[in-house]
Amino acid sequence: MLEETLLAEVTLFEEIHGNCDAWLWAAEVRPAGLAQDMAARSPQARLSTFLQCCLLAVFLSRAGCQQGEFSPGQSAASLPVGAAAQQRRYLLYDVNPPEGFNLRRDVYIRMASLVKTLLKSADWVLVLPPWGRLYHWQSPDIHQVRIPWAEFFDLDSLNQHVPVIEYEDFLAENGGPFIEQVYVLQGYAEGWKEGTWEEKVDQRTCIDQLMYSEDKHGYYRGWFWGYEETRGLNVTCLSVQGSASIMTSVLLKNVSARSVMLDRAENLLHDHYGGRDYWNARRSIVFAQHLRVVGDEFRANVIQSYDEADKTIFIEDWTSVKAKPNTALGGPYLAVHLRRKDFIWGHREDVPSLRRAAEEIHSLLKKLKLKKVFIATDADREDLEKLRKLIPEMVRYEPTWEELELYKDGGVAIIDQWICAHARYFIGTSVSTFSFRIHEEREILGFDPKTTYNRFCGDKEKNCEQPTHWKIVY
Ligand SMILES: C[C@@H]1O[C@H](OP(=O)(O)OP(=O)(O)OC[C@H]2O[C@@H](n3cnc4c(=O)[nH]c(N)nc43)[C@H](O)[C@@H]2O)[C@@H](O)[C@H](O)[C@@H]1O
C-alpha cells in the first residue's frame, strides 16, 4: 500500500517536473538513458534520484550557469551554497571496497578523531558514508546500497561525540551532488624504510589505477556509495604515512574546498588506539534502537536473559555511563562467534575445524555450568547442518525473509553481536574484527576480561595466543 502511494507520488512528480533542467542535465550526463534506468528502479530510488536532480538544478541556477555550461575550473567554494550558509566544511570518506563492516566501523573512529582535531580550528562536520556493496552482504534479492547509518546506529549518540550528518543531508545542505576535492590516499611507492618512521603526507602520482574517470564536463565520476549523480570536481592522490591527524594541515591550510573526501581512508592510522578519545568515539557508536530491541526480545524469549538479572542495564546516553569493571554478570548462556567463509578458504592455521570448535564449546559449557550456547556465524547451510548435529544445545538468531529485508545483513550482524555481548562468557575467532567489536561492547558493559578476550585455536596451532585486553579509558 505504501509502495503504491509512493509510486503514485513519484509519477506525479515526474509529470509535473519532467522537463526540469536537472532531468535534462542528468540525461546528458548519463546518455545511457535516465528514463529507462529510472523505470527499472524501485519507487524509493526514483524519488531519491529525482530529488538529487532537482538539488542539482538549484545548484546550477544559483551558480548562474545554463544547463551544461558549468565549467570544471569553477570551484564550488566560490559559489553561493544554499542551506550550508553557515560556512561549515564537510569531511567525507570512503574505504577500500573489499573491507568489511567491522573494519569500517574502526575507520569511522579514525575519521571522528580527525574531525575532533579539525574542530579546534574550524567548523567541520563528518559526512557518514552510506553503507552498501559489501562483499560479505550476499543475501539475495535484498537492496543493500545507499543504506543510511541510522539503519544500523544511533545518530544522536554519534553526534554527542562529533558532529555527523548522513550523505543525503549533505546533498541537501551542499545544494548539489558535487564534492569539491577528492583525495585518494595511498602509501609511499618506495615503502617504509625500517628505523626511520616519520609521519608525512605528500602529493604524489597515483600508484594504483584510479577508480575515478572524467565525464565530458571534466568532472570525476566514481563509486560514491552508489550515488550515480555525484561528481568530484578534483581528484588528487596523496601518499600518507601516519595517524589521521596528519591530514589536519592539508585540510586547514592547503585546500579551501568546502567539501573534501578522503578515499581509502583506512590508510590513516589511529591517533591514539585504545586511548580516551578512541573509547569515547567507540562508545558513541551505539547500535540503533530497533536492532537492540530485536536482540533483547531474543534474549528474553529464547535464552532467558534479562538486563536486571544479568547486571547489564543499558543507559541510552553513553556519556553518562561508566560501568564498574567486572560488574556485569551476563545471561545464562555461552556465546560464540565462529567465523567461516573466507576465513576457512584461506586455510588459516588459527581457525578451528567444526569438530574442534564443538569440542571446545562442550568443554566450556561443562566448566561454566551452562546449558545453552548462542552461536553467531557466517557458516553456509552445509556447515550449519553439521553444527546442529555436533552441538544440539546450539541456539541461533535466524531472521525470517521479511526480517532480513528489514534489518539487512548489517542489521542481522548487529543483532548477533548484541546477543554475544550479553552472554556470561564469550569466545570468538582469531583476528576477526567482528569478534573485536564484541570484545569492545562487553568492555563497555563492564564484563570481567576473562569472560571476553577468548578465541578458538586452530586444530594444529602451536602457539595459540589469546586476544589482547584493551582496557576501557574514560
Ligand atoms: C581478513 C579480513 O576479515 C574481515 O572479516 P572480519 O574481520 O571477520 O569481520 P567483518 O569485516 O565484519 O566481515 C565479516 C562479515 O561477514 C558477516 N559475518 C561474519 N560473521 C558473522 C556472524 O557471526 N553473524 C552474522 N550475522 N554475520 C557474520 C557479516 O556481514 C560481517 O560484516 C573481512 O571483512 C575482510 O574482507 C578480510 O577478509
Task: Describe the protein in words.
By secondary structure, this protein is of the alpha/beta class. 39% of the residues lie in helices and 14% in strands. It is built from 16 helices and 13 strands. Strands 3-2-1-9-4-8-5 form a seven-stranded mixed sheet. Strands 12-11-10-13 form a four-stranded parallel sheet, with helices on both faces. Strand 1, helix 5 and strand 2 (124-128) form a beta-alpha-beta unit. The model is unreliable at 1-7, 9-13, 15-40 and 57-85 (pLDDT under 50). The structure holds guanosine-5'-diphosphate-beta-L-fucopyranose (GFB). The site of guanosine-5'-diphosphate-beta-L-fucopyranose has 21 residues, from helix 5, strand 11, helix 15 and helix 16.
Major pleated sheet: 7 strands, mixed
Overall shape: it is globular
- Helix run count: 16
Which regions contain 5 or more consecutive residues with pLDDT less than 50? Answer: 1-7, 9-13, 15-40, 57-85
Structural class, judged by helices and strands? alpha/beta
Order of helices and strands: HHHHEHEHEHEEEEEHEHHHEHHEHEHEH
How confident is the prediction overall: mean pLDDT? 86
Q: What portion of residues belong to β-strands?
A: 5-15%
Supply Rg.
24 Å
Tell me the total number of β-strands: 13
Helix percent reads 25-40%
Distance between the termini: 49 Å
Largest sheet: spatial strand order: 3-2-1-9-4-8-5
The small-molecule ligands in this entry are: guanosine-5'-diphosphate-beta-L-fucopyranose
Pathway: Protein modification; protein glycosylation
GO molecular function, one term: peptide-O-fucosyltransferase activity
Pfam families: O-FucT (PF10250)
Catalytic activity: L-seryl-[protein] + GDP-beta-L-fucose = 3-O-(alpha-L-fucosyl)-L-seryl-[protein] + GDP + H(+); L-threonyl-[protein] + GDP-beta-L-fucose = 3-O-(alpha-L-fucosyl)-L-threonyl-[protein] + GDP + H(+)
